[in-house]
Amino acid sequence: MVSKLDLAEEMEKLSPVERIRVIDQVIRNTITPDPEVDTIWVNEAIARWKAFERGEVEPVPYEAVMSKYREK
Fold first, then answer.
1. By the 8 A CB rule, do 48 and 42 touch?
2. Is residue 33 within 8 Å of residue 25, measured between CB atoms?
3. What distances in angstroms separate CA 43 from CA 11, 20, 37, 58, one per listed residue?
4. What share of the chain is helix, strand, coil (3-state, %, to 5)?
5. Per-residue pLDDT tens over the stretch 15-61
6. Any idea what DSSP says for residue 56?
7. How far apart (Å, rounded) are the C-alpha atoms in residues 56 and 60?
8. Residue 51 and residue 59: Cα distance in Å, rounded?
9. How far, rounded to the nearest angstrom, does the alpha carbon of residue 68 sit from its chain's CA centroid?
């Protein structure tokens, strides 16, 4: 069995694209999607979009959102 340290060292040898592919595969093999949660998020996204279309919410520019998190 490969130790965590050996695995980390091997990951460092990979290109950024190869690292992303490995991480993606690990996530896909680890996390099982929950259809109920997916449905809840889809319904929430639809409700938010409809509220936007009706003018009930003000859009926030991307940079305004990101600057809030960059300050931390």
1. no
2. no
3. 38, 30, 10, 20
4. 75, 0, 25
5. 999 999 999 999 999 999 899 999 999 999 999 999 999 999 999 99
6. -
7. 13
8. 11
9. 18
